[in-house]
Design goal:
Distance between the termini: 54 Å
Radius of gyration: 27 Å
Largest sheet: 12 strands, mixed
Shape: globular
Number of strands: 20
Helix content: 25-40%
């Protein structure tokens, strides 16, 4: 017979075992939390001084999944609805009505409606000269979830302009937009360390599906070798544009994956036409003939690019691919002779070339141009600058600029041609003012028929090539390397969308 003391002891031991062996609710929640608390660190190649989507040339807010636009571009470069579910025009593109999706909130809980969109677009116009010119808005009227936009002149492709990340829709009533913009995207900003990183967390009430990551870091480092080192050490999960010479090592390491897709970006040589020498198209053509594009593709780009025959990828229906085929030193000398440079006071031609290192191939291309020009008797001094966009737009103390631009991110030629070649265009760093080209672009902007638009864009591109207003050098691939644990990464040709709700990692 068991006495009371023994019975109590036995009961206590049973209870202790049950307590120790049974799953604890708190331990379950911790385990589940660990499964859902996934995060990635993404390392980009351009630094950002601001997160304000209306002024940031690096588009960080959209790339990091904080802000969204009314319209987006798909992987096959077709425009599709995003914050606007549909749109229409009844007068060939003068007036547009956009229907804003319902049941969307900003990351502070404020409802998105047409009035909020109107306020955000108005701020874009006020803050960005380039967007003011591109959007060309005369008047906006908001009514519930319907936004009616009247333009100053018809724009048959107006919705494609609203793909641009500088038109991201944010709550304009919050303070300190530069450090903490409030958008509608899957991630909201926790902190912004200027020039270093953005810490993000999942927006739990995101409208467009479950966000798989709990946290993310969108970091910046312009040193390509440092980006690779970060990936190899595990301090970064995804790196944008690793140095091309590192691809062989990364591709043979099973820990990593490498994604490369043709981009809609073009590396270009700009000619500052406030320089008297460069006003002469023969001088521009002489410099262009020194660009050995095949050599650049193979020796500098590691075959991760295609030689450019114009600013647009050749598969676009509006691309003119009949570029000048004259190449090499003999052709360059002939062009200089036409420009009369052997007789201009006996003074050698000396030019400055501005570029930047965040795309590591650009300084190498600059050195190749410098070396080839020296054989021709042209002295080129290379200057590396940090903010090339601001530099070439604000200053005239440069002659050549080795630059890189996304030329057709919406599958249309109009934006690039308007902003880069019209007088007063927001990105017309070369100060180009060509009456014939201006008329072509203005006609393109008011033409509805797609076939006619393509033909006008071809004619404009042919004129740019013929007069060598800019030299298109190569179309680089977008190359991204990432840890094999990263899931659902997609390399978008537009370079606009990086941290998405679908991005995931294995535990």
């Amino acid at each position: 017979m068991i006495n009371n003391k023994k019975l109590v002891s036995m009961i206590f031991l049973v209870l202790l075992c049950l307590t120790a062996c049974a799953p604890n609710e708190e331990s379950i929640s911790i385990k589940e939390k660990k499964k859902t608390d996934k995060s990635v660190t993404f390392l980009f190649n351009f630094t950002s001084a601001t997160l304000d989507p209306h002024t940031d040339d690096n588009y960080t807010a959209v790339r990091a999944g904080v802000g969204e636009t009314l319209v987006k571009i798909s992987n096959d470069l077709k425009i599709k609805p995003w914050l606007a579910e549909k749109w229409k025009t009844e007068d060939n593109g003068l007036t547009w009505t956009f229907t804003i999706r319902k049941n969307i909130t900003f990351q502070n809980g404020k409802a998105l409606d047409a009035n909020a969109v109107k306020s955000s677009l108005q701020r874009t116009i006020d803050q960005s000269y380039a967007m003011k010119n591109a959007l060309n808005i005369k008047e906006m009227k908001a009514n519930g979830h319907a936004l009616t936009i009247t333009l100053k002149e018809p724009m048959p492709k107006f919705p494609s302009e609203l793909v641009h990340p500088n038109t991201a829709i944010i709550d304009v009533d919050v303070s300190n937009i530069a450090k903490k913009p409030i958008g509608t995207g899957p991630f909201q900003v926790l902190t912004f360390d200027q020039g270093n990183q953005v810490k993000l967390e999942r927006y739990e009430h995101y409208w467009n599906g479950k966000v798989k990551l709990k946290n993310a870091i969108f970091a910046f480092n312009e040193d390509a070798n440092a980006r690779v080192a970060a990936l190899q050490s595990g301090t970064a999960d995804i790196i944008y544009r690793p140095p091309l010479e590192s691809l062989g090592t990364l591709q043979t390491d099973p820990s990593f994956k490498v994604s490369g897709v043709p981009s809609v970006r073009t590396h270009l040589l700009l000619y500052n036409q406030t320089n008297d020498a460069l006003k002469d198209e023969n001088v521009r053509k002489a410099i262009d003939t020194l660009l050995n594009r095949k050599e650049i593709v193979s020796s500098i780009m590691n075959n991760q690019a295609a030689a450019a025959r114009g600013p647009f990828l050749p598969q676009f229906p509006f691309a003119d691919n009949n570029a000048n085929e004259q190449r090499g030193m003999p052709s360059a000398k002939k062009y200089l002779e036409k420009a009369g440079y052997q007789m201009k006071n006996g003074k050698p031609l000396s030019l400055s070339l501005v570029t930047y290192s965040s795309l590591p191939e650009l300084p190498l291309i600059a050195q190749l141009i410098q070396s080839n020009a020296k054989e021709l008797g042209i002295t080129i001094k290379i200057h590396l600058v940090e903010d090339s966009d601001e530099y070439v737009m604000a200053k005239d103390d440069w002659d050549l600029a080795l630059y890189s631009l996304i030329t057709a991110p919406r599958g249309d030629a109009s934006y690039y041609l308007s902003t880069n070649y019209l007088p007063g265009g927001g990105l017309n760093a070369s100060r180009i003012d060509d009456d014939k080209l201006t008329k072509m672009i203005e006609q393109l902007n008011s033409t509805v028929d797609d076939a006619k638009r393509d033909q006008l864009a071809k004619q404009a591109t042919a004129l740019i090539n013929e007069e060598m207003l800019t030299s298109s050098i190569v179309h680089p691939n977008i190359v991204v390397a990432y840890n094999q644990k990263v899931k659902n990464w997609t390399t978008n040709p537009s370079e606009y969308y990086m941290l998405t709700q679908h991005l995931d990692v294995t535990p």
